[in-house]
Amino acid sequence: MTASGFELLPGTGLLLPFGAGALRFGMAEREARWAVSTVADVREMWVCRAPWGLWADLQGIEITAWGGAHGEEPSRGGLDQVRLARTVDDPLDPAAVPVEWLGVDLFGHEQDEVLRALEPHGTHGLRIERSAGTYLRAVSLSARSGPARDDQ
Length: 152
Fold this sequence. Notes:
The protein is 11% helix and 31% strand. By secondary structure, the protein is mainly beta. It has one domain.
């Protein structure tokens, strides 16, 4: 991964671009807000059944993260879910900022190519949202996804 892009980490969370640190599952809301605020303007966000949520936009990619009581086993108030989405519903061009998962730039290649590249490795809990355009719309990862395994 380049230092200028995001990297989704199975079972861990999200590395932020430009050396801004990471959003790690279980981390406190304040720490999550601080980490994201080093690369983008952070806004409060409402998420059903989650005590806290945040939203930010970085060069056409929406960063959303939430935590607390979301899901069956909350991370004791900490970060439970991260989502990266394009700011356009049906993207026709690659994103300005790379979003990497297991060595594949998810928003930098056409969605069919991305899915073919991931096929042998599996998604390890990564949720992929296709678009009617050429490129993926969004991806999300939760604390419940667990670490990547070789047998998937």
